[in-house]
Amino acid sequence: MDIDAWVWWLIGAVALGIPLVVTAMPEFGMFAAGAVAGAIAAALGGGIVIQVLVFVLVSVAGIAVVRPLAARQRAQRPHLASGIDALKGRQAVVVARVDASGEGRVKLAGEIWSARSLDAEQTFEPGQSVDVVDIDGATAVVM
Which residues cross the membrane (predicted)? Predict the structure, then answer.
């Protein structure tokens, strides 16, 4: 039983697809695509040198195109703030007079927080909207 060269290339493509799925490394996908291209070259009657050249060219071209696209996509991911970082920059409503002493209270994200003024000379009265500049321990620093 003699197996044609294109079948071997397809077996190689499947073998390269397995680590692609396991490791999620797109390079293996490009090598698998190169192996499929090698199978097509073999099915069209190309010699072994042509098959290997097609495999290498398609694999390298795929990596050269996909790697910069993947890096650009990774760099464009939005930064998702969580915890106290998500509270910075939000607005709060003063519940109890806020000054630099830290004894004031604001309603921030549906919760009552202790608060102090960023500027020592500035005070805020109940009902006023303030911006949260920072979170210092369990105290919102507002302005």
Answer: 7-25, 31-64
